[in-house]
# Entry
Amino acid sequence: MALPANISTGTVTGTFLNVAGGAKSGTVTFRPSFDHALDAGANVVFVPEKVTASLDTYGSFSVVLAATNDPDLLPLNFTYTVEINIYGSSIPSFTMSLLAGTTVDLTDVMPL
Amino acid sequence: MSATLTGTIVRSDGTPARGKVRITPGFTHSLNVTTNVVVVAETIVIQLNALGSFAVILQGTNDPAYDPTNFTYGITFDLIGMDIDPFSFSLPNGSTLDLADIAPVPSRSGDLTGRVYVQSTQPTSPNVDDIWIKI
# Structure
């Protein structure tokens, strides 16, 4: 089922390789920071279920998520916790915002 | 930008070593914001061929396109009947380095029971535990 029409979205992309240039397999999960969120305009309650994106054969993914700054979705300005589940990786989880209408690559928001 | 690491490991009697070489980058992950690539710290495992040789292309350790820059690789050896201590090395962009260029030669008073020869010719009068890294 698609997001309600009144909810703005953003896109997160990413590509994972190893030092030999090999494409990695695995998943990236996004967990919203709210217990629940309300879209009164569409009469929808959002639950904080994780969204999981799988890497393709190039080690890449792209996922469309509800924007974290949409005034139609309360609480406003929540964040996503990003978990990297890739063999050979020990990248710690981190949080990110996703502004409406933007495309954010993980290299722009992932801490070193 | 990448670089190449090569190596040939043979016993002192000239027979090729058998086993694997493992190379691990010294970062948790690195980021290239230009190409939007995350490089994970996966250990690269390389099987020696029938001649005891290997060649692998790796990310250069001083590539300014990646953050962090100037990391090092750690290398360990999983060889049948042979022990070579692990060590760290840099691999500058565009270079081709051979193990014989970067492997430290241990002191004879160390824990190794044999000696490590880094040279093109077969050692004379080697002991059974000696290792010859052929240039």
